[in-house]
Amino acid sequence: MAELIVVAFRLAPDAAAWEPTFGGAPAGIARVRSLCSRGEALGARIVAWTPGALAMAWDFESLEESILLASSALEDADHAQAAWACGLAEGELEPFFGEDARVQPSWGEPLVVATALARMARPGEVLVDGRVRALREGSLSLLGVRVGVSAGRRLQGWRLDVAQPWKTGAAEAATAFGGDEVSTSEVLQIIDAAPPTPFAGADDLRGGAGAIEPLLARVGNLVRTGSATEAAEVLPYL
Question: What global pTM score does this model have?
Answer without folding.
Answer: 0.71
